[in-house]
């Protein structure tokens, strides 16, 4: 619509056409109001029955909520109107009527249950709170891309249909690829590493990852969005610096550009993490978890950190932090060990009660890499497309991946990761 004016831009004295959804219809007898909502806000349309054509009044008041309408009229100042202005209509057009029974009412103050909302995302995202989350998510990705530009990265896109998995064999989704076994990719890991050996040197990707997670939890998805970074000629410490830079940039972007959305969600104390994220070694982490006394059994060297332990340590530390120097045996084959072989350069970043990032320095020496495959029970031949490039000049390199939904979830303290995905994929949900 060429001549459309947004609700928030309607200025007294002008004759405008607003178009949007019938948010609310209030008939008070001699006077009736239609509230029209668009993405910028709401505006009141006033129908004074005695002073107006019956047809016009009927068009504007005898319609169902959530119908799409276009209203033309003069904008007037009106103290009693919710936004201080209202439109005195000359014409009302119902462009797309809505059925009277809505599966979910966007104007209801109390929201519907999450499954109903997810089944009707279009209507759900007419609610300001739900919409605000996705506007913030978009800002997070915009700010992250800008931070990657500051880091002089090139954005890449890698295949999502692949021949091999990388993050442990049990979590793959198998598919059939022209009669051949294939999988949905769990991570751009191997491809991003191949690119640091190319002329690009430093890359990032924002794209889907697919994991046949066993558990249905509030923080796992079967299709998630991974924000991946990989760079030649840096070590794990510099990778953690870059990670901190990108996460902080995302918070800064939201603080600067999403004040309305934060208001809508009721955050009056949204803050950008100021301090450098502490870097605890794995050994310190298990000692501190054991000292909280929150676990029934004490952790011993070599254990992965259990969810309860992560929570206890998160409350203890209080903000984002890294866990470094993990035992080599519990990190994947592509992570480089420290010289002693016992400890790895792998790291996780916690935010603070759940894992947000994994990364590390990579094994770039061909012979060590092939040995690592064998130690993990993987067939190096299946990965030949990857390992062979390590024979032709692969620089030392490091990188990491942030789960975009976890970043939004932890930033906004959302109770369920599904709040941060338009159309989540979980064990029960394959559509919409
Ligand atoms: P009439 O306009 O013919 O007198 P009425 O008696 O139904 O019709 P009012 O008494 O003016 O209407 O108002 C009814 C209610 O609507 C009152 O509570 C009034 O405060 C409110 N109201 C009137 N005009 C507006 C407006 N432009 N915006 C918001 N609320 C209004
Ligand atoms: P990892 O498997 O730890 O590491 O994944 C990185 C980050 O991605 C997010 N994530 C998920 N989010 C929601 N649902 C899931 N099922 C899910 N799985 C992962 C998390 C997690 O921290 N290749 C390495 C990264 C690297 O070393 O560069 C990897 O995939 O936020």
From TrEMBL:
One of its GO terms (biological process) is aspartyl-tRNA aminoacylation. Its EC number is 6.1.1.23. One of its GO terms (cellular component) is cytosol. Mg(2+) 3 binds at residue 355. Residues 101-432 form the Aminoacyl-transfer RNA synthetases class-II family profile domain. It catalyses: tRNA(Asx) + L-aspartate + ATP = L-aspartyl-tRNA(Asx) + AMP + diphosphate. The keyword rRNA-binding does not apply. Keywords: Aminoacyl-tRNA synthetase, ATP-binding, Cytoplasm, Ligase, Magnesium, Metal-binding, Nucleotide-binding, Protein biosynthesis. It is an enzyme of class 6 (ligase). PROSITE patterns: AA_TRNA_LIGASE_II. It is found in: Cytoplasm. Homodimer. This is Aspartate--tRNA(Asp/Asn) ligase. It comes from Halococcus saccharolyticus DSM 5350.
């Amino acid at each position: 619509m060429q001549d459309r004016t947004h609700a928030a831009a309607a200025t007294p004295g002008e004759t405008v056409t607003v178009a949007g959804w019938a948010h609310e219809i209030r008939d008070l007898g001699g006077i009736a109001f239609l509230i029209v909502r668009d993405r910028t806000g709401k505006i009141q349309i006033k129908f004074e029955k005695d002073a107006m054509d019956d047809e016009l009044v009927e068009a504007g008041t005898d319609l169902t909520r959530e119908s799409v309408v276009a209203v033309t009229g003069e904008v007037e100042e009106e103290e009693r109107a919710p936004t201080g202005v209202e439109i005195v209509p000359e014409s009302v057009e119902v462009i797309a009527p809505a059925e009277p029974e809505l599966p979910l009412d966007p104007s209801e103050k109390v929201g519907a249950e999450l499954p109903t909302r997810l089944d009707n995302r279009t209507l759900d995202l007419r609610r300001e709170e739900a919409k605000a989350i996705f506007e913030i998510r978009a800002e997070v990705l915009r700010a992250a891309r800008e931070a990657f530009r500051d880091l002089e990265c090139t954005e890449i896109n890698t295949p999502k249909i692949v021949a091999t998995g990388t993050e442990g064999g049990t979590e793959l989704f198998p598919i059939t690829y022209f009669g051949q076994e294939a999988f949905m990719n769990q991570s751009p890991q191997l491809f991003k590493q191949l690119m640091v050996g190319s002329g690009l040197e430093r890359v990032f990707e924002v794209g889907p990852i697919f994991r046949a997670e066993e558990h249905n939890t509030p923080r796992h998805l079967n299709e998630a969005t991974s924000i991946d970074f990989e760079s030649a000629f840096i070590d794990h410490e510099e990778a953690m610096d870059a990670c901190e830079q990108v996460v902080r940039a995302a918070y800064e972007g939201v603080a600067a550009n999403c004040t309305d959305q934060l208001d809508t969600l009721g955050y009056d104390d949204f803050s950008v993490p100021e301090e450098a994220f502490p870097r605890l070694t794995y050994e310190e982490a298990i000692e501190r978890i054991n000292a909280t006394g929150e676990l029934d059994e004490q952790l011993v060297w070599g254990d992965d950190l259990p969810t309860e332990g992560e929570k206890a340590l998160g409350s203890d530390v209080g903000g984002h932090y890294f866990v470094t120097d993990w035992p080599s045996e519990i990190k994947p084959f592509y992570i480089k060990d420290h010289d002693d072989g016992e400890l790895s350069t792998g790291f996780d970043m916690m935010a603070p009660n759940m894992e947000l990032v994994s990364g590390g320095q990579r094994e770039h020496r061909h012979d060590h890499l092939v040995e690592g495959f064998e130690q993990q029970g993987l067939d190096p031949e299946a990965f030949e497309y990857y390992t062979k490039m390590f024979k032709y000049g692969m620089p030392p390199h490091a990188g990491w991946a942030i789960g975009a939904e976890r970043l939004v979830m932890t930033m906004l303290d959302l109770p369920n990761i599904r709040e941060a995905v338009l159309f989540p994929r979980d064990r029960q949900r394959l559509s919409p």
